[in-house]
Amino acid sequence: MSLPPCPQCHSDLTYEDGALLICPECAHEWSPDAAPAGAEEARVWKDAFGNVLADGDSVTLVKDLKLKGSSAVIKVGTKVKNIRLVEGDHDIDCKIDGFGAMQLKSAFVRKS
Length: 112
What we know:
Elements: E1 15-17, E2 20-22, E3 29-30, E4 59-61, E5 65-66, E6 73-74, E7 79-80, E8 84-85, E9 92-96, E10 100-104, E11 109-111
Antiparallel strand pairs: 1-2, 2-3, 4-7, 4-11, 5-6, 8-9, 9-10
Organism: Hydrogenophaga electricum
Protein name: Alkylphosphonate utilization protein
Domain Protein YjdM C-terminal: 46-111
């Protein structure tokens, strides 16, 4: 019986340990019943009220946000146009008039 290669580093040295498969080269562990890495579901971004966000949407801030390294504050109600969704903790790339390019968390905006 041939074991599948590691989905992360593609090493052929995988081995079974109980119900898991393990790669000794990168220490990745996975279940052989798990869906392949390419079959992941598309991520859905939601605003503070549960509305689904998409690239190009306009959003409004629901909380005052202090800018790191500055004394400036972006006030609640500030409208941000043409957002771009990205992976990561701060999942919105945008430009705010008077402040420039920055990243925001989707938890602090609502869809306009």
